[in-house]
Amino acid sequence: MNNKTIIRFEQVTKKYDDDLPVLDNVSFEIERGKFYTLLGPSGCGKTTILRLIAGFTEPTSGTIYFNGKNINHVTPNKRQVNTVFQDYALFPHLNVFENVAFGLRIKKMKKDIIEQKVKDALRFVNLSGYEQRNIQEMSGGQRQRVAIARAIVNEPEVLLLDEPLSALDLKLRTEMQYELRELQRRLGITFIFVTHDQEEALAMSDEIFVLNKGKIQQSGTPKDIYDEPVNRFVADFIGESNIVAGKMIQDYLVEFVGKQFECVDKGFAPNEDVEVVIRPEDLEITTPEKGKLKVYVDSQLFRGVHYEICCYDKDGNEWLVHSTKKAEVGDEIGLYFEPEAIHVMRLEENSRIGVADEK
Ligand SMILES: Nc1ncnc2c1ncn2[C@@H]1O[C@H](COP(=O)(O)OP(=O)(O)OP(=O)(O)O)[C@@H](O)[C@H]1O
């Protein structure tokens, strides 16, 4: 554990009933002052991780540390953590000021201190002047900000955000993404943000944990995860990918679709069966002779910035290409790619599931 670590999960398992675990022996570290995102499909255990951090539920086994102390049995109100819920959970009968002041009143703080703290929190979320408004008179985006103000007024060390943008329309959602990111920078505290939207995760985070079936599949910066997915699940879930079966002949040489290609990967067993990922934007359309692969154009869609071209090789593998060049349906074309565009992954069953587990 390094001295930046604020939260640590050590072999945490959570079972609700006698069912399969919702979280299965998960270990990871969260550092102070960074923006983390838990990303994964519905039911993968994201909210359960937040609930464990907040103290709304306890692990079935394993240990959760906060600032180096075991907090397994510490009640939620004793944790330096606040949560912003998906539905904001605001009190409809209280005005903006009283919503934000609620927790401070329960703590029996002095009136003038409460006033100062609420004012500061509302200023942070650009809602100065809205103190007396009814919650019903606030828009979706404004309610969202009240919910954030109510959480940060307690000066938590960690703010947990459970899909806080999912109720907003696309335009407002994008605006709030910028706002949240900026707010995290200004506050300098740790944000742990839950989403199932991969674009949102890539745009906002310092670090992403990709979860599936109660396990962390991969953790890293958005670029790490996009450029070097460790397995098929991550490659498929993050962005669009072409994934084909291959064989790692030796270091820096991989075979797929019956041909051998130079690549930048190493450390596999000789002739190890692998999966190969190439992103659609890393494929360049050429004449059939100049390409590294020959494919037939099956269909094409104009997507505004690029054409999305669907092709097939002689083995029947589908190749999706994003290109500013147009292709003709039915034509044979070449596909060119650099060695760096090839990402070699171990097969799912052997893959380094839970890179974070190894820390
Ligand atoms: N209180 C509970 N009792 C029993 N099962 C639960 C409970 N809470 C969650 N689960 C189950 O645990 C699994 C993980 O749930 P969790 O809410 O952590 O997933 P999630 O990744 O946040 O999903 P979503 O994106 O749909 O919110 C699901 O199968 C869910 O049905």
From TrEMBL:
Molecular function terms from GO: ABC-type putrescine transporter activity; ATP binding; ATP hydrolysis activity
Superkingdom of this protein's organism: Bacteria
Keyword Mitochondrion: no
ABC transporter domain residues: 7-238
SMART domains reported for this sequence: AAA
GO cellular component: ATP-binding cassette (ABC) transporter complex
CDD domains (UniProt xref): ABC_PotA_N
Catalysed transformations (reactions): ATP + H2O + polyamine-[polyamine-binding protein]Side 1 = ADP + phosphate + polyamineSide 2 + [polyamine-binding protein]Side 1
UniProt keyword Cell division, yes or no: no
Keywords: ATP-binding, Cell membrane, Membrane, Nucleotide-binding, Translocase, Transport
EC code: 7.6.2.11
Complex formation: The complex is composed of two ATP-binding proteins (PotA), two transmembrane proteins (PotB and PotC) and a solute-binding protein (PotD).
Function, in words: Part of the ABC transporter complex PotABCD involved in spermidine/putrescine import. Responsible for energy coupling to the transport system.
Family listed: Belongs to the ABC transporter superfamily. Spermidine/putrescine importer (TC 3.A.1.11.1) family.
Protein name according to UniProt: Spermidine/putrescine import ATP-binding protein PotA
Naturally occurring in which organism (per UniProt): Aeribacillus pallidus
Name of the gene encoding the protein in the UniProt record: potA
